[in-house]
């Protein structure tokens, strides 16, 4: 860990009760979700992490409580370092404040998280679905979302499957 | 014909209206320039010089559904894309035909899940299914020739519904 990263990690640990974990030199900070915007603001303004590389989410259901982690990677051009922030979010009506005020490119990434995981971002300017059709029900990347298997048509059950298969008309 | 063809004395050819129209339709079918996934690469390969689809009267792909009468669905159709495919089909003038190219367009292929339409025949009526993942250009050409055979057998009384 270099000096900039050391300072940033220390500052976040003191101010926001962040928990540090390190794996093969990759720094990850578990920040309480109520401080997410302040933590990102501090990283951008005080430690020159100008760029949001990625913002995504992970569903740890059913092993871990709370269920979701919203993950954000920030990059600093000057120091050539990456830092990862994780915000644990509860599975019951999950919501979080939006990072758009700090990093404008979080807009589409948060739309994607909302679309696929159903995590609401408060203060987001345009929280619509981005990948799935607008009228879609459910959030497909959740672990409890059914995969939607359709029965495969073989010669022995061809008629049986044919009966409830829809066919397009002219 | 021989010598008559050279001196211009072609004489008279009698044929059925059905045969004449179907011959014209098969001889100048215009596919729509529309690729969805990796199958589209093979479709391009079929049109390029090695396989040369224009041997079968398909000189050019039209980039507009208004000017085309053959839709080659090349690739998997996601649920979000399905209304678009249907709209393109509706915009094509009659008579029109559809080829489902590849396993994904025919039956969903390896993508048996919520996001992909299990066979494009749920959305548009398909005339010929081409198997393969992706089918080689020979496979697509065989599908097109099969469609030509089908079109040649079409009857006058069926044209009204076309």
Task: Summarize this structure briefly.
By secondary structure, chain A is an alpha/beta fold. Chain A has helices spanning 3-16, 36-47, 106-117, 158-163; strands at residues 19-23, 26-30, 51-59, 68-76, 81-89, 95-97, 120-122. In chain A, helix 3 links the parallel strand 6 and strand 7.
Alpha-carbon Rg of chain B, integer: 18 Å
Assembly type? heterodimer
For the sheet with most strands of chain B, the description reads:
3 strands, parallel
Would you tell me the overall average pLDDT of chain B? 87
| CA-CA gap between termini of chain A | 65 Å
CATH C-level of chain B: Alpha Beta
- Find the count of extended strands of chain A (DSSP E, 2+ residues): 7
Written description of the protein model:
The complex is a heterodimer of chains A (170) and B (162). Chain A has 170 residues and is an alpha/beta fold. Chain A has one domain: NADH:ubiquinone oxidoreductase Nqo5 subunit (Beta Polymerase, domain 2). Chain A contains 4 helices and 7 strands. Chain A has helices at residues 3-16, 36-47, 106-117, 158-163; strands at 19-23, 26-30, 51-59, 68-76, 81-89, 95-97, 120-122. In chain A, strand 1 and strand 2 form a beta hairpin. In chain A, helix 1 runs antiparallel to helix 2 (36-47). The termini of chain A are far apart. The model of chain A has no long low-confidence stretch (mean pLDDT 90). Chain B is mainly alpha-helical. Chain B has a single domain (24-152), classed as Rossmann fold (3-Layer(aba) Sandwich). Chain B is 35% helix and 8% strand. Chain B has helices at residues 3-7, 17-27, 39-47, 82-91, 102-107, 137-152, and strands spanning 70-74, 97-101, 128-130. In chain B, strands 1-2-3 form a 3-stranded parallel sheet. The mean pLDDT of chain B is 87. The interface between A and B is medium-sized, with 19 and 18 residues.
């Amino acid at each position: 860990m270099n000096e900039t990263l050391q300072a940033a990690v220390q500052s976040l640990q003191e101010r926001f009760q962040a928990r540090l974990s390190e794996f093969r030199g990759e720094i990850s900070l578990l920040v309480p979700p109520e401080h997410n915007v302040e933590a990102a603001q501090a990283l951008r303004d005080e430690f020159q992490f100008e760029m949001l590389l990625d913002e995504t989410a992970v569903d740890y259901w059913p092993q871990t409580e709370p269920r979701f982690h919203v993950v954000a990677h920030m990059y600093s051009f000057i120091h050539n370092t990456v830092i990862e922030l994780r915000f644990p979010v509860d599975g019951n009506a999950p919501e979080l404040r939006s990072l758009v005020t700090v990093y404008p490119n979080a807009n589409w990434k948060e739309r994607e998280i909302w679309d696929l995981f159903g995590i609401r971002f408060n203060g987001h300017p345009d929280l619509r679905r981005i990948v799935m059709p607008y009228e879609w029900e459910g959030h497909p990347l959740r672990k409890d979302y059914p995969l939607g298997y359709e029965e495969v048509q073989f010669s022995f059950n061809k008629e049986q499957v044919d009966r409830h298969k829809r066919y397009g008309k002219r | 014909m021989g010598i008559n063809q050279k001196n211009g004395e072609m004489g008279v050819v009698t044929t059925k209206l059905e045969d004449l129209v179907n011959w014209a339709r098969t001889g100048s079918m215009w596919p729509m320039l529309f690729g969805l996934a990796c199958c589209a690469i093979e479709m391009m390969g079929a049109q390029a010089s090695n396989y040369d689809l224009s041997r079968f009267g398909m000189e050019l792909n039209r980039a507009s559904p208004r000017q085309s009468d053959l839709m080659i669905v090349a690739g998997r159709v996601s649920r979000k894309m399905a209304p678009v495919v249907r709209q393109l089909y509706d915009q094509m003038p009659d008579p029109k035909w559809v080829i489902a190219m590849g396993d994904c367009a025919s039956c969903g292929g390896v993508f048996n899940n919520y996001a992909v339409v299990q066979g494009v025949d749920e959305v548009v009526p398909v005339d010929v299914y081409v198997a393969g993942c992706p089918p080689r250009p020979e496979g697509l050409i065989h599908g097109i020739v099969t469609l030509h055979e089908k079109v040649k057998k079409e009857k006058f009384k069926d044209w009204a519904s076309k």
